[in-house]
């Protein structure tokens, strides 16, 4: 998504390094960013656009030196966008030029966007992260057994907002940023594989983020447990134990005995804190660890299989293909 239509961009150039980025933004700007100065230069925008298979990832950093400024978010094509406001500022936005939406800090929302959109930014710095995808991508995920309860509801809502030329799809339900969203964003932003492997990797992370968002909608009314500080520390220890034992067979029952928790409590508390089940986390971490080991040029593939808990390389390659949509050689 561009923040301005092509006709309104008055200055546009490639940044080779982040050397001319303000210090407070430097850690967040990637080397391939584009810098856009608009109009009287009261707005400076750093645009980052990353390919991710059927998804397209965008990240914007905006500096507003005036008390209040309008920007005009313009999608490259009419599309769905999973949007996250990453800073502490609330922004007033108008989708399709008339529907008012408050973009609250650390809130995740699903939009359908066409051309006429307005966001009014207060003075200061702003950070937006979002990715675009098609209706087919969304409905393909909703066909999965775990999400079918949302299929008809979201199909109806998407049709409504298309007729309005844009709108928020999850309204009035709100989804808040959590540790799992943050982890996925970090992985999308900082992956450093070869070009093809990076696209497959980002695609998987976008899919996981969209699925997590849909899961939050499904269980929005589910009561959350009150966790003590000690329980949270113990659950973090469980996560570290899983990482240190990725080469071994680990399951919820063993972990509950190891950390003196009931299996039912451990499973529910782990999911609540981390946004993912223990079983899914174990598999996700093994796949993550495999990508890192595969990037070590001279490491034998059988050693990689053993270190990630697979009986042989063929078993690892099969699991890897099911997870990332490509075989391990892409990451070599």
Describe the structure.
A hairpin with a 3-residue loop joins β6 (91-95) and β7 (99-103). Helices cover 41% and strands 25% of the residues. The protein has 332 residues and is an alpha+beta fold. α10 packs across α11. It has 2 domains: 6-178, Sandwich (Jelly Rolls), CATH 2.60.120; 227-331, Orthogonal Bundle (Arc Repressor Mutant, subunit A), CATH 1.10.10.60. Strands 1, 2, 3, 4, 5, 6, 7, 8, 9, 10 and 11 form an 11-stranded antiparallel β-sheet that branches. The protein has helices at residues 23-26, 135-142, 148-163, 179-190, 195-218, 229-244, 252-258, 263-274, 278-294, 301-307, 313-324; strands at 11-14, 34-38, 43-52, 55-71, 79-85, 91-95, 99-103, 107-113, 117-133, 166-168, 175-176. 28% of the residues are buried.
SSE layout and pairing:
Blueprint: E1 11-14, H1 23-26, E2 34-38, E3 43-52, E4 55-71, E5 79-85, E6 91-95, E7 99-103, E8 107-113, E9 117-133, H2 135-142, H3 148-163, E10 166-168, E11 175-176, H4 179-190, H5 195-218, H6 229-244, H7 252-258, H8 263-274, H9 278-294, H10 301-307, H11 313-324
Antiparallel strand pairs: 1-2, 2-3, 3-4, 4-9, 5-8, 5-9, 6-7, 6-9, 8-10, 8-11
Helix pairs in contact: 4-5, 10-11
């Amino acid at each position: 998504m561009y923040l301005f239509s092509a006709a309104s961009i008055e200055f546009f150039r490639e940044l080779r390094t982040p050397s001319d980025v303000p210090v407070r933004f430097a850690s967040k700007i990637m080397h391939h960013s584009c810098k856009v100065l608009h109009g009287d230069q009261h707005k400076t925008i750093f645009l980052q656009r990353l390919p991710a298979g059927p998804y397209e990832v965008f990240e914007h950093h905006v500096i507003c030196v005036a008390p209040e400024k309008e920007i005009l978010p313009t999608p490259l094509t009419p599309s769905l966008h999973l949007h996250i406001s990453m800073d502490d500022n609330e922004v007033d936005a108008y989708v399709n030029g008339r529907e008012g939406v408050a973009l609250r800090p650390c809130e995740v929302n699903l939009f359908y966007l066409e051309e006429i959109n307005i966001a009014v930014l207060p003075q200061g710095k702003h950070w937006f992260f979002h990715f675009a995808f098609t209706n087919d991508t969304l409905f393909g995920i909703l066909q999965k057994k775990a999400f079918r309860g949302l299929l008809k509801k979201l199909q109806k809502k998407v049709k409504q907002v298309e007729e309005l030329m844009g709108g928020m799809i999850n309204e009035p339900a709100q989804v808040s940023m959590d540790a799992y969203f943050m982890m996925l964003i970090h992985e999308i932003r900082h992956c450093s594989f070869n070009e093809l492997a990076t696209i497959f990797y980002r695609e998987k992370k976008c899919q996981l983020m969209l699925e997590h968002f849909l899961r939050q909608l499904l269980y929005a009314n589910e009561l959350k447990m009150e966790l003590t500080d000690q329980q949270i520390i113990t659950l973090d220890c469980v996560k570290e134990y899983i990482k240190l034992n990725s080469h071994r067979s680990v399951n919820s029952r063993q972990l509950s005995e190891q950390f003196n928790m009931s299996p039912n409590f451990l499973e529910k508390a782990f999911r609540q804190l981390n946004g993912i089940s223990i079983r899914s986390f174990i598999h996700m971490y093994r796949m993550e660890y495999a990508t890192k080991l595969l990037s070590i040029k001279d490491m034998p593939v059988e050693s990689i299989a053993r270190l990630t808990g697979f009986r042989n390389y063929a078993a690892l390659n099969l699991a890897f293909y099911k997870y990332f949509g490509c075989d391990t050689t892409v990451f070599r």
